[in-house]
Design brief:
By secondary structure, the chain is of the alpha+beta class. Helix content is 42%, strand content 23%. Strands 7-6-5-4-8 form a five-stranded antiparallel sheet.
């Protein structure tokens, strides 16, 4: 009986390791589990009998990979992962990613059915104190996000058609590394093979060409803080309108009045600073400027000046 319990516990640990990384050598697994390579082989056979699609990796070293099968086997999630998945599914069910709402509700129902009460309380607390703000901007197809994240995970080169803000499309050949969620948008950070440099791509403008491949060796990321790097790299880039204004106040007075991903402040002197951002619409730009609560001069674009003049006339009529 004790031997059976030890074997079952080890099988669960093997599953956890296989779900942690894509490929494992038999020797690495044996070392992590404290057993022989022969025992690892027997464990893999047991997992296959239970319906888990464990594939052998050819080559001198050999190894194992948990692949896709005809049915989805049970997944092992730790506490933090389970809470993150539940919160993510609830968010998706509210329409954060187009086309995934109904599926998210079904998956959430299955997950919450087996969540321990302590974890369910954590999920409910997060949900109770989180207020979703519906957006009207472009949405990302769930299948596109899945394709991009799989290519990042498996270190597979990816080709895709990419549309710029004017709608012109180019073919890009990349080594995808990370997906970054910022504001209401998703961005892919990838090494552009044709430009021999790092590039950031808006996911809603990507149309992947499949299949992906071949495999590549991951590069050192352009920054330890990738979120900050993407934020700085996307200020005003690829938007329909690139906005630049001179604010008649200090940088310290306005920093923090809008989220960091919206734009960048640059100090000129103790009473003046510059604000740079990018938007799809003039209405959005006007909203950002209104949140700053300071006098300003529009440096660019000319269309924003005209839009603000129209708004001023409208507000003046409303105040009479």
């Amino acid at each position: 009986m004790t031997h059976m319990l030890e074997t079952s516990a080890r099988l669960l640990k093997v599953l956890s390791l296989l779900q942690l990384h894509r490929d494992w050598s038999g020797a690495d697994l044996a070392e992590r589990l404290g057993v022989s390579v022969r025992t690892v082989r027997r464990d893999m056979e047991k997992l296959r009998e239970l319906g888990y699609p464990v594939h052998a990796i050819p080559g001198t070293a050999g190894g194992y990979r948990l692949g896709a099968g005809a049915a989805l086997p049970p997944l092992l999630l730790d506490d933090e992962e389970a809470v993150a998945v539940a919160v993510g599914l609830r968010t998706a069910a509210q329409g954060a990613v187009t086309g995934i709402e109904e599926t998210s509700v079904r998956a959430l129902a299955k997950l919450e059915q087996v969540l321990p009460s302590r974890l369910r309380r954590r999920v409910n607390a997060l949900q109770a104190y989180t207020v979703p703000v519906p957006g009207s901007g472009p949405t990302v197809d769930a299948e596109v996000l899945t394709t991009l994240s799989a290519a990042c995970r498996d270190h597979e080169r990816l080709r895709f058609d990419y549309a710029d803000h004017a709608g012109a499309t180019t073919l890009r050949r990349t080594e995808p590394h990370r997906l970054v969620a910022m504001g209401h948008r998703w961005y892919l950070v990838a090494w552009d093979l044709d430009r021999d440099d790092w590039r950031t791509f808006r996911a809603d403008r990507i149309v992947p060409r499949t299949p992906a491949g071949p495999r590549f060796t991951p590069r050192e990321l352009p920054s330890a803080d990738l979120g900050d790097w993407v934020t700085r790299g996307t200020w005003g880039a690829g938007w329909r309108f690139e906005v630049r204004v001179r604010l008649h106040t200090s940088k310290d007075d306005v920093t923090g009045r809008v989220p960091a991903y919206i734009g960048e402040f640059e100090a000129v002197d103790e009473n003046t600073c510059l604000f740079t951002t990018g938007t799809e619409t003039l209405e959005t730009a006007a909203t950002y400027l209104g949140l700053l609560g300071a006098d300003f001069d529009v440096l660019q674009p000319q269309e924003l000046k005209e839009h603000l003049r129209t708004l001023a006339e409208r507000y003046l009529r409303a105040s009479e």
